[in-house]
Inverse folding.
């Protein structure tokens, strides 16, 4: 009897882990990715059947040969992903990560090119400037949402355009930043560029470490602090959080400022990256295009279930698939545009599948219903016992 | 759950089986696109069409590569990718590749680079060096401008305009050629002295701005019939002004007829033909030395400049349909005179101003203009 | 042999080893009103799903008029003349009454909708059974009672002979309940058979002929109502004796705790005021009940006190402190505990675990956080203590998801949270709504205990039994005003009903002359 009880306890423990939230969303993510890959493969199959198998394989494995670049390109989307995911925890859909990213990038660029600061301090100042730029661009939609209940989706979409056009205007009108005959910004001084991690043939730099640290800090804030507790409570149920006396206005503004700051850091990390070419640097082209990294952030956040640690991995996955895609278009008879389509299909189908994860979850539940029912039975029988006790008393 | 694991296992099994037979392809000739796409109706497309034609005709594997990011590092990384994919010859269209090619020429000494419209140099412009494995291709902009000016006046336009970006050598050459072409056509038509009026203007930038559009609009309102827009995105401003004023534009660098109906012709660089010529030197004539390690100027003699003579996507269309009377025959005649060197437009003149902006007198005397009266602003 | 229209014999339905229905027999006679009684989770819904073809039973069979039938889907059920009014109506909100009734069986000629005939039939049916509806009203604009009549008409329109009502009275006012009971009796007289799912014993006693009781998936028996009592039924249902009379002593009334003065609140539906110049006091040691038919301003009064809505005019004083303009957190600190009307909307964060919900009102206190970091261990220990003290049952103890808990245990959790934190006044809004007798009994005891501990309790309830049993003083609201102040000992349910319906008023508001 005692033995039996113990073993059933163990089983319950195990099934608890299997069914825990983290595990559930992890399997859901895996399924979503598989679904995305399947659709991507179908596109490749249609585009060029002969190359599809080898090409698809390269798609999956190509990134491993360029790990430095996988991390390098993952950094900005990790930041925009965190931005979207963090706001989402509070029930805000920050579609304006692109604008915040661009604004952060501009602030970093400005401090990098216009200020003369000593080595070792300059790039840090640039990063902070980028964060402030993003925060500013997150603050306004947050303020409008909190005080006048203007839908943050609409404002932040509009702020993507306003931000992008403003930055393009600021850049083109600044003779010391803009090189007109190359239609792009000039080179940043070396002092403003981030220290490289020294991986050969890759621009991967300290920002990836910073980004991962930020993600972990966010995870702690969300899960261990009263602030995170309030944010999540508001995100899950804003009526209950109001009932519990939480300050919705303040939290909304704060969340959007933080989300903006995260996206702004992404922009700063991208523009401040070293190039490995003496005297050269990253450059920005004011060609009236909204930063794609902002939108990829949405996919990254969805794929990571808005969990900061999950987002680290989903950003790496997206970057990995993109690098693999470059390999495919290099080595196989696919046009780069087709590969762009395949990458987009994989990323967005995966993200889409995550949205549908309730359906996926149901699929999984069917399989584990057996265990669930058993557990229910146990609870019922224990209730029975306690009822008996009561009647006896 | 079991089913799910089975599926994953099956897929990974399949992956393992396939790794065994995964075979990479190689491509001999590669083109790296710049920030635009391959169908940008500009440098990428012009260069790719030449490359594609040559490689297809000669059965050589070829491919274009899209950089993962549009900056020096991204361009260099794309060159790395192309080399990894087996490229022996890499074509880089445009001056944005000057710094990346400077890096790549020593990194890959066994790969040949064809750099169009630029010369390799360091990021700070401190060192210009073209290694033996690089062919730097420049274009005789003055000849192209000459053809445009000649065609416009021959077609009956008498009030012309020139809007350059900044007074850099390429833009200056276009402008000087344009004036000389107009002069030559006026002389042929036996027009009186000063009967062709040209308003000559440098905008000071290469951007699409409201100021540039306003300048163009003012010119049109003053009676200018056609403006040679010669400065990157300045063209967009001029085309916008032309649309509003129902006036005409002459495009630059590539055939810009597709950008706006107002574009009657374009002073082109022969990107495709120059790419073909250099590729032939490698694959056919074994005469790479002709171009290697230096900058070669392509002109009418080797099909390096010209006005558009065909319409992309329509073999039967007439590329001269936006002219009133000027046609292919007239064009061929004037082109032949450039090829035979019977006419040789001047590329540089003496200018007092350090910024390179010429006065009306400097233009009139330096270019020996009689029929054409220049007014600058 | 009796004349049974539907027999469900020895039905067993397993969900992977767990018997939701274990050898259950239900026999429905022609022309009878048959109640199906059981606590939440007793297997009533499963049994009905089997009857509707949503589930297939492992064992047992279903007979219609003595012949065995198979029901594989709801269409089969419909063909056999079985219709159901669900607890949550299945109506298209933006359609008219008529459109909803004919939905799915639209009369058409060559694909063109023929509404005329349908309208005639609907009007006839509504006259015949006294089901007053306006065929052209839009569903979202009509009252809940009216919507229920539409659901009933839907069954009649399809000529259903066996009518199933799933907890039909949960959403109705006392008057509407009376009407419904009349209608059901009418049906039975017509020869239609009615299956009436409920856990309200009073209703069963007043309307049903027979009653089948389920407990934890097992068949407890079928009894003739005329031969049984409420107590016996509840014993069959719960498995033990349940007391319906709340044990409480005379109140020990103290100082005024809550003082509401001249409160006016705007209406959300129209431009009128939902609360008009209302004033009252709640003293320490008494339970004051705010009674009335839903929508007469009680909710708005509560919102004004708790701070969920901003007060338009008037003042609210708690323990001598003016709290009218304080934010909710400050009100909480002043000593206000609040069991909200909607436990899913306000009371709980359903996606949080039980322990996270238990600190919802006090996570900011030094006991539960240090420098902004939540003390997980303290939170867990605290929750475990409350689970024991209040007998909150859930799958995984403190870490169970609030969403997965039963309604009764969710409510217990809220009550535990609100009672355990420091408070002077407890506001309990419909604390027993939708709960079964066991849970109701528990909650009533807690309310009385709170009162006896010298706190003030302001109760808002639509359940007349609850109002009469629990409160020390009743304030009846009608159209935004307090129209009567009654002592439950000196009044009857009938008199209370008169006040609630506005037929009688005794108390002039103090500021009414204004």
């Amino acid at each position: 009897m005692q033995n039996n009880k113990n073993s059933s306890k163990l089983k319950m423990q195990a099934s608890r882990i299997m069914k825990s939230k983290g595990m559930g969303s992890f399997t859901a993510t895996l399924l979503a990715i598989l679904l995305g890959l399947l659709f991507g493969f179908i596109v490749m199959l249609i585009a060029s059947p002969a190359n599809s198998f080898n090409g698809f394989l390269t798609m999956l494995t190509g990134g491993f040969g360029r790990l430095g670049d996988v991390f390098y390109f993952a950094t900005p989307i990790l930041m925009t992903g965190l931005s979207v995911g963090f706001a989402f925890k509070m029930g805000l859909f920050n579609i304006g990560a692109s604008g915040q990213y661009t604004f952060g990038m501009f602030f970093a660029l400005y401090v990098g090119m216009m200020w003369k600061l000593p080595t070792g301090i300059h790039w840090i100042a640039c990063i902070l400037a980028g964060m402030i730029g993003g925060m500013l661009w997150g603050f306004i939609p947050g303020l409008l949402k909190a005080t006048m209940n203007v839908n943050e989706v609409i404002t932040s979409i509009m702020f993507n355009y306003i931000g992008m056009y403003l930055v393009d205007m600021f850049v083109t009108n600044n003779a010391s930043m803009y090189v007109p005959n190359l239609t792009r910004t000039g080179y940043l001084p070396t002092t403003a560029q981030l220290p490289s991690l020294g991986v050969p043939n890759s621009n991967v730099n300290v920002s990836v470490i910073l980004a991962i640290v930020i993600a972990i800090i966010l995870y702690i804030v969300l899960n261990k602090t009263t602030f995170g507790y309030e944010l999540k409570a508001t995100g899950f149920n804003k009526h209950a959080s109001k009932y519990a006396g939480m300050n919705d206005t303040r939290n909304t503004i704060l969340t959007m400022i933080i989300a903006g700051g995260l996206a702004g850091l992404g922009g700063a990390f991208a523009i401040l990256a070293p190039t490995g070419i003496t005297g050269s640097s990253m450059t920005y082209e004011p060609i009236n295009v909204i930063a794609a990294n902002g939108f990829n952030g949405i996919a990254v956040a969805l794929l990571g279930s808005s969990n900061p640690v999950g987002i680290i991995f989903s950003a790496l996955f997206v970057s990995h698939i993109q690098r693999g895609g470059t390999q495919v278009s290099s080595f196989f008879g696919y046009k780069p545009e087709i590969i762009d389509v395949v990458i987009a299909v994989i990323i967005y189908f995966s993200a889409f599948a995550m949205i549908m994860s309730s359906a996926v979850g149901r699929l999984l539940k069917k399989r584990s219903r057996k265990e669930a029912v058993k557990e229910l039975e146990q609870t019922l029988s224990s209730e029975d016992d306690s009822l008996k006790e009561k009647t006896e008393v | 759950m079991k089913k799910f694991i089975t599926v994953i296992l099956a897929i990974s099994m399949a992956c393992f089986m396939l790794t065994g037979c995964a075979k990479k392809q190689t491509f001999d000739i590669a083109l790296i696109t710049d920030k635009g796409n391959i169908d940008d109706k500009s440098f990428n497309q012009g260069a790719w069409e030449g490359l594609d034609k040559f490689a297809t005709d000669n059965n050589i594997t070829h491919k274009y590569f899209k950089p993962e990011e549009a900056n020096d590092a991204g361009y260099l990384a794309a060159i790395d990718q192309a080399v990894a994919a087996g490229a022996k010859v890499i074509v880089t269209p445009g001056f944005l590749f000057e710094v990346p090619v400077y890096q790549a020429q020593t990194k890959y000494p066994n790969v040949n680079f064809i750099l169009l419209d630029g010369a390799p140099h360091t990021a700070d412009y401190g060192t210009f060096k073209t290694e033996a494995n690089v062919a730097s291709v420049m274009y005789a902009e003055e000849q192209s401008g000459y053809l445009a000016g000649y065609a416009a006046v021959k077609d009956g336009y008498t009030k012309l305009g020139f809007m350059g970006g900044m007074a850099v050598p390429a833009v200056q050459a276009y402008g000087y050629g344009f004036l000389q072409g107009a002069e030559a056509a006026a002389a042929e038509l036996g027009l009186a002295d000063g009967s062709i009026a040209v308003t000559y203007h440098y905008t000071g930038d290469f951007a699409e701005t409201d100021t540039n559009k306003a300048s163009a609009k003012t010119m049109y309102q003053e009676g200018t019939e056609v403006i040679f827009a010669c400065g990157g995105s300045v063209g967009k401003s001029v085309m916008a002004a032309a649309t509003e004023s129902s006036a005409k534009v002459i495009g630059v660098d590539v055939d810009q007829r597709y950008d706006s109906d107002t574009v009657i012709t374009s002073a082109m660089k022969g990107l495709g033909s120059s790419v073909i010529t250099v590729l032939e030197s490698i694959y056919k004539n074994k005469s790479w030395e002709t171009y290697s390690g230096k900058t070669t100027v392509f002109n009418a003699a080797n099909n390096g400049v010209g006005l558009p003579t065909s319409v992309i996507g329509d073999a039967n269309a007439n590329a001269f349909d936006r002219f009133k009377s000027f046609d292919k025959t007239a064009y061929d005649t004037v082109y032949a005179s450039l090829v035979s060197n019977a006419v040789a437009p001047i590329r540089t003149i003496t200018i007092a101003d350090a910024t390179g902006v010429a006065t009306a007198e400097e233009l009139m005397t330096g270019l020996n203009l009689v029929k054409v009266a220049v007014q600058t602003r | 042999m009796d004349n049974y229209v539907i027999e469900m014999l020895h039905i067993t339905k397993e969900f992977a080893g767990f018997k939701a229905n274990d050898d259950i027999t239900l026999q429905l006679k022609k022309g009878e009103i048959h109640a199906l009684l059981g606590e939440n989770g007793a297997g009533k819904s499963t049994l009905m799903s089997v009857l509707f073809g949503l589930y297939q039973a492992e064992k047992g069979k279903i007979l219609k008029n003595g012949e065995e039938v198979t029901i594989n889907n709801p269409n089969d059920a419909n063909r056999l003349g079985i219709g159901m009014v669900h607890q949550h109506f299945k109506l298209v909100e933006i359609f008219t009454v008529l459109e909803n009734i004919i939905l799915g069986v639209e009369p058409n000629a060559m694909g063109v909708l023929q509404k005329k005939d349908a309208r005639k039939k609907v009007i006839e049916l509504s006259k015949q059974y006294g089901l007053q509806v306006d065929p052209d009203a839009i569903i979202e604009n009509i009252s809940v009672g009216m919507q229920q009549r539409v659901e009933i008409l839907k069954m009649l329109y399809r000529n259903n002979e066996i009518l199933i009502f799933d907890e039909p009275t949960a959403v109705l006012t006392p008057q509407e309940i009376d009407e419904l009971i009349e209608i059901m009796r009418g049906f039975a007289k017509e020869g239609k058979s009615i299956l009436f799912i409920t856990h309200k014993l009073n209703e069963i006693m007043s309307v049903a002929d027979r009653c089948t009781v389920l407990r934890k998936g097992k068949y407890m028996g079928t009894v003739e109502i005329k031969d049984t009592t409420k107590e016996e039924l509840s014993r069959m249902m719960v498995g033990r004796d349940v007391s319906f009379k709340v044990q409480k002593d005379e109140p020990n009334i103290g100082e005024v705790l809550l003082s509401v003065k001249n409160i006016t609140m705007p209406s959300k539906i129209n431009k009128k005021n939902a609360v008009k110049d209302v004033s009252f006091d709640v003293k320490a040691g008494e339970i004051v009940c705010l009674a009335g038919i839903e929508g007469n301003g009680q909710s708005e009064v509560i919102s004004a006190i708790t701070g969920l809505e901003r007060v338009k005019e008037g003042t609210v004083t708690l323990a001598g402190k003016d709290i009218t303009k304080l934010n909710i957190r400050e009100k909480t600190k002043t000593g206000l505990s609040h069991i909200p009307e909607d436990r899913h909307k306000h009371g709980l964060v359903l996606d949080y675990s039980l322990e996270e919900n238990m600190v919802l009102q006090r996570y900011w206190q030094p006991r539960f956080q240090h420098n902004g970091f939540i003390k997980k261990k303290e939170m867990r220990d605290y929750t475990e203590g409350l689970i024991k003290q209040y007998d909150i049952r859930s799958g995984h103890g403190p870490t169970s998801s609030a969403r997965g808990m039963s309604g009764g245990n969710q409510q217990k959790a809220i009550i535990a949270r609100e009672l355990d934190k420091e408070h002077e006044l407890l506001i309990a809004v419909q604390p027993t709504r939708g709960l079964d007798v066991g849970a109701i009994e528990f909650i009533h005891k807690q309310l009385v205990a709170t009162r006896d501990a010298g706190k003030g309790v302001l109760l808002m309830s639509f359940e007349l039994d609850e109002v009469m049993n629990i409160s020390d003083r009743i304030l009846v609201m009608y159209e935004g005003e307090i129209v009567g102040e009654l002592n439950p000992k000196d009044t009857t349910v009938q008199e209370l009903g008169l006040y609630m319906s506005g037929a009688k008023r005794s108390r002039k508001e103090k500021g009414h002359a204004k």
User: Anything to note?
Assistant: The domain at 50-364 of chain A is CATH 1.10.3470 (ABC transporter involved in vitamin B12 uptake, BtuC).
